[in-house]
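Aim 2 progress. For MMPL family transporter, the working sequence is reproduced below.
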Amino acid sequence: MGRRPVTVRLARWSAEHPWRAIALWAVFVAVCFVGGNAAGLNEATNGDQAIGEAGRASLIVDAGDFADPAVDNVLITSTGGALDQAAAKAAADDAAARLRTVAGVAGVGQPVTARDGSALLLPITMSGDPETASERVQPLRDATAAVQAAHPELRVEQVGGPSIGQALDDTLGKDFKRAELLSLPVTLAILIIAFGALIAASVPVLLALSSVAAAMGLSTLASHLVPATDTTAPVILLIGMAVGVDYSLFYIRREREERAKGRSGLDAVEIAAETSGHAVVVSGFAVIISMAGLLLAGDVVFSSLAIGSILVVAVAVTGSLTVLPALLARLGRWVDRPRVPLLWRLTAPRTGRHGEPRAPRLWPAVLRPALRAPVATLVISVGLLLALAAPALGMKLKFPGMEDLPRTTPAMQAYDRLTAAFPSAGTNHVVAVRAPADQADRVHAALTDLSARAAGDPLFAPAEADGPKIEVSADRRVTVLDVPTPYASRDDRSVQSLEKLRGDLVPAELRGIPGIEYAVGGGVADSEDYAQHVRDKLPLVMGFVLVLTFLVMAFTFRSVVIAASSIALNLLSAGAAYGLLVLVFQGEWAQGLLGFTSMGAIVSWLPLFLFVVLFGLSMDYHVFVVSRIREGVRSGLANRDAVSYGITSSAGVVTSAAIVMVGVFSIFATLSTIDMKQLGIGLAAAILLDATIIRGVVLPALMTMLGDANWWAPRFLRPRPPAAPADPPAPAPELVPVP
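Predicted structure tokens for this construct:
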């Protein structure tokens, strides 16, 4: 008898030494978490995140070492009708006097009147670290509130970067706290429904949470090699909960199924390790390969997401192969306690006359068209999915701007009034120039001319009374000009103004200055350059993921047909998800339903990230289902009967796992920001499509149509003849009557 697979040997050792395995896992998680916290987090800098010409502009500005204190403003407007200038001036003087006495205020500027006289703006310079200004702005807001109380005939409000930052931190902080509080009970409730027993439902959550904790610590250590970003921790939580629960679910359901056949606890664990454990390893490799593709993007944000995701998946796979068998062996039949009476009767493992798992009646009905008329079913289902994917061809990519933030806070409402009265306070292009110090005067004159030319163009905002905003570094080597446009950052006219600056105005004014280096940046440039970066890198990442996934699937299933069909089905699923995103978010019909304002585009980073996540997570279901179909084929079932057996015997666990993911991802769709809404809807819809139409209709129709060709492979890849199984599955007609 050959050497047992490593998954079985690990599971057997853990099951025979449960307390040792559990203790080792607890120590591993604790060491990772504590060690990571002790090492500290290395966060990405602006230089790490520089992309395209906008990134070069940012680096030039940083080289100037400008004093860049946090600036907030007091905005004074009328509550109705024309603004009383005398009353506004009195309110501004009152505000200036109060704010000069507030701790944290470095200076109060002179009030500036809007060109149309509709507003008065009082700039306030804050002391201290600009990065923490939003945490220290509340005393200024309190002083402004006192001015408002003293001048009720006017609207007096605080607006600016620190004020908006504080308001958004409050709003988004509440959003994420609500999402975190909801995700755990939602996951637990779905698992209780899936298992009908409290302990069985708690084990996957426990494994997932411990995997996330360990991966958080490891990712903190890894940040000293690849700097981390703000999105790393939330993605580790998202991916970790998804795969941790899935892997445990696959394993526990198979172990319970084998115990229902009369196996002993140790035998049931071994069989689960040999079947579901093997599927967990393969799907884990598939997810890791997908996430590793992000490293090819050459972007610190994607690289940090890749490292965090790879670590949490690797930890979750390790836990599924070690501590999970130990827990199941130690709990024994207690894993099915305490039972929820009605749910237990509905979800308890049931077997047919020959010991095969019996599927719910729904799945035989769903499968019938695919098994009886596979070609017609395949053509219709694929046609529908391609129709859903078609809108993706018109996908537009943009970063969300200030106009896409939720308008539920007074700070954002004040921002709208500020940009209406002072267009230059809204969207700005940044012209950054580096040149020898002896050319500083010539650069300044050229930028002054550039500002004057731009001010006469309707694509740009009119010139302000105090002249162009030009800053020169202390060493006179770096000069920066702000060029405002009156349009929102995602407005096409803002993009046109950027193109005009880059293609005409800036080169025309600066060309010919010796030793000069220049770049145009700002919010619009960041969005356009990053979108182009994603378009350039997406084919490379997709190619890497597709090729390596093909090789893994071909080696695992010893079939190039299975590998090719796996790739095709996952591409179909991802395409349908893209199309759905475009339908929902680039139009306006779903705004009221989902509570968002359409930005007419998809968030720039989402397509690349969504592709690798969906491709990886979809493999969880695919590997598990195809593994069960292969079990049927190896036991001697005809192809169509094996397909029926594989789909029906895995239907319960795949459905449960998909419902968990859809439930958790849907919570993200309730958050306030447009990027989180798009991420939540995209992931939830894709997983739902994948677990239902792809795995329940397209896959069985395709494999039924292909017949024995499913398992074709070149001679060098063909497997050795398998040993006869100890307990072959019963013929498929017991599960799904097929004429």
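The longest helix spans residues 161-195. This observation will guide construct design in the next reporting period.
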